[in-house]
């Protein structure tokens, strides 16, 4: 699975190490050393995946993620020395698909890169299901589109998978663990709390009032379900 991967890392030694490992797997790699260059490069020649350091000059990785998520749904692997749970959740909140803490084993980096590329490049077959609809909410897997009424909604790959899972079975309750497995596979390093962050972000995007969700409903002590939008609740 060869891909074009952009690495945004201001430490030359770390950047070269990542570049070498990616090249061993025959990926095409470009390295930039600051956040503004990362944004410019994505806009100029969209990569298949972005490996994004948080602490960078010009524009830090969090701001880069915030800017790019308004425009693209490319997979983002965020890399940082910040190991706190709040830092990881902030990264996911801004749209990162995965989060790796420094120092790390380059082999683990490569495993996560492979996992993200597999998920992002998984194409629907010729017998792909028709768009899913619940109330005014539509999810189209073929076009990778989410719409509320006629309004298009930009979702990250993980958000799209979570919403698609819920939309495929309206009214059915899904545990956080099951949603986590559908969104990320069996990657044990991502916690169930990540699902709460993604659902919170989805509510901001698809609900008229995120504090009184009409679609994405919480089933306390169990998980989440999606309903037809005619009733509101928590």
Automatic annotation (TrEMBL):
Transmembrane segments: none annotated. Residues 4-117 form the Response regulatory domain. Keywords: DNA-binding, Phosphoprotein, Transcription, Transcription regulation. Residues 129-228 bind DNA. The modification 4-aspartylphosphate is found at residue 53. It comes from the Bacteria. InterPro entries: CheY-like_superfamily, OmpR/PhoB-type_DNA-bd, Sig_transdc_resp-reg_C-effctor, Sig_transdc_resp-reg_receiver, WalR-like, WH-like_DNA-bd_sf. Residues 129-228 form the OmpR/PhoB-type domain. Pfam families: Response_reg, Trans_reg_C. This is Response regulator transcription factor.
């Amino acid at each position: 699975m060869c891909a074009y991967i952009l690495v945004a890392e201001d430490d030359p030694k770390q950047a070269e190490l990542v570049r070498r490992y990616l090249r061993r797997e025959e990926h095409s790699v470009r390295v930039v050393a600051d956040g503004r260059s990362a944004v410019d490069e994505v806009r100029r020649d969209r990569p298949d995946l972005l490996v994004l350091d948080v602490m960078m000059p010009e524009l830090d990785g969090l701001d880069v993620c915030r800017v790019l998520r308004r425009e693209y749904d490319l997979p983002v692997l965020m890399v940082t020395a910040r190991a706190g749970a709040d830092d990881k959740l902030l990264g996911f909140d801004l749209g990162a698909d995965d989060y790796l803490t420094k120092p790390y084993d380059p082999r683990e980096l490569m495993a996560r890169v492979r996992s993200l590329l597999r998920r992002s490049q998984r194409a629907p077959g010729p017998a792909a299901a028709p768009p899913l609809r619940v109330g005014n909410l539509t999810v189209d897997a073929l076009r990778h589109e989410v719409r509320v009424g006629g309004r298009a909604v930009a979702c990250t790959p993980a958000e799209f998978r979570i919403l698609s899972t819920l939309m495929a079975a309206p009214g059915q309750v899904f545990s956080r663990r099951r949603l986590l497995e559908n969104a990320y596979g069996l990657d044990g390093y991502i916690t169930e709390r990540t699902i709460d962050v993604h659902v919170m972000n989805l509510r901001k995007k698809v609900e008229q009032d995120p504090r009184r969700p009409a679609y994405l409903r919480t089933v306390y002590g169990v998980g989440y379900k999606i309903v037809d939008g005619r009733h509101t609740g928590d």
